[in-house]
Amino acid sequence: MYYMNNKNLIPIFILLFFLSCKIQAQGSDKNTKDSILLYNKMLSVKQIQQDLKILLAINEKANSGFYQYRSKKQIDSLYNTTIKNIKKSLSVTEFYKIMLHLTDYEGSVHNYTIPDLDLIKFLNRQKSFFPYPLLYIKGQIIFDGQSSDIPAGSRIRSINGISDTKLMQSFYKYYTADGFNTTEKLSASVNKSFGINYLLEYGLSNEFIIEYNSPKSESLQKKVLPAVTLKQREANIKNRFSAPVTDLLDYKKQSPYSFRMLNPTTGLLNLRWFGMAYGSDDPKFEPYVHFLDSVFTGLDKNKVPNLIIDVRNNPGGSDPNFEQPVMYLTDQPFKENVKATIIFDPNLLPFENYFWGVLTSERMDSISKKMGKEYLKDVYPVFKNNISVQNPKYNPVYYPKSPKFKGNLYLLINENVASAASHFASLVKAYVQNVTIVGVETVGGYYRHNGHSPLIYELPNSKIKTQFSIVNLVQDAPKKENQPEGRGIMPDHEVWPSLDDFFQQKDTQMEFTLKLIKTK
């Protein structure tokens, strides 16, 4: 995890490491010096209700997007009902699961809720991990491992007696999204949920009883796989069957940006991550700017008619990184946003006694806190009518650059495009005329989002930490007929990966795009 200042938009993938729910001590570890009981204490009804009331109060005072997609009446009703329904003591992880539902309901991809890191560290030490990677393909859980145990491409029907449908649905609450879209929930419920997430949801296991159908078979088979260590699981994930395709979209394994010609008429610009520089004064920013200039100069010089820009799985990053490519694609000036606000006076941090900081790993000291307030005061200088508006100098106009790309643009997006990357896709959809968007609706919003500066608060009884970004941004995104409110960037052609292409280790969305180019 890294600190995101006002110029940054938090990547969705930070959320994925910190998930929660009820844990049952099913393993054989009875050592009270290192037991789940140490990290999953019981909370009284009074303690839980107090934490929930504090959570609601903090959000009302500091979270500018709290009532963005749900009315005050709706959210207050949910909190009040939840508080009234607490009738008995709950473990920290049981309460944590309740909090996940609350933060998910709000509708912000930048929200996440974090249990005590000692709990995560304990789980990571256990030999209780599901051994192989799994992959979501059109509503199915597909086995993505390469082993003699289960054939790659097999459909998983149940694990430890729980059906595939119930397994997937049980993980939806862990994945927040801007507004009401659900695309990332679908795939993440498989692709990102069978590591530590599974342990948090279903407890510690020594083995996994798997029912499955082999490829092209309706016969139900059963296999018992022993649990493995986290290190063993990670080794198996590296050897996943889909790696020739999925590794190419992994921002941790690929360069943040790259370009190549697929053929004489089509170029491919990969933008895997917009966090390659923290801002325009970062030494890494200028090489990126020069790279883009050389790409678009070359496209213009060679009169290349087609350009594919691939931002799939891009988790976000900073501005002005994501605005730079747009400047070569449009003949109109644009801004990052038309309005950005916070709802408190930067001099008076709400509920400062519960404030933790901006990093989960360490509490912010008084000196850093003072500097943070001074920074916010510079960016949001005037607090009036319960709102502080962004200083205009932090929202510059971006003007078109030459040479403008004059050919056909194809933008590849998917459900993992978040934060600054979805903001980039929003600008492309808003300001580029000759664009065709292929893929899956992004998890980040088209019209607005809460982003930039994250704040972390720790609740006093459960010690659970909650994070949200405090800046409500109305993006520079004109109204579009095919772009409903409260949704991510909608593609012109919705294309999900297919099982046939999985077996052939082909990239479904790229293959579709190349065929689309040929038909033009």
From TrEMBL:
A Pfam cross-reference name: Peptidase_S41
rRNA processing found in the keyword field: no
One Gene Ontology biological process: proteolysis
One function term, GO molecular function aspect: serine-type peptidase activity
Stated name of the protein: Tail specific protease domain-containing protein
Keywords: Signal
Species whose genome carries this gene: Flavobacterium bizetiae
Domain Tail specific protease: 292-494
The keyword Signal appears for this protein: yes
InterPro entries: ClpP/crotonase-like_dom_sf, Tail-specific_protease
Segment forming the signal sequence: 1-25
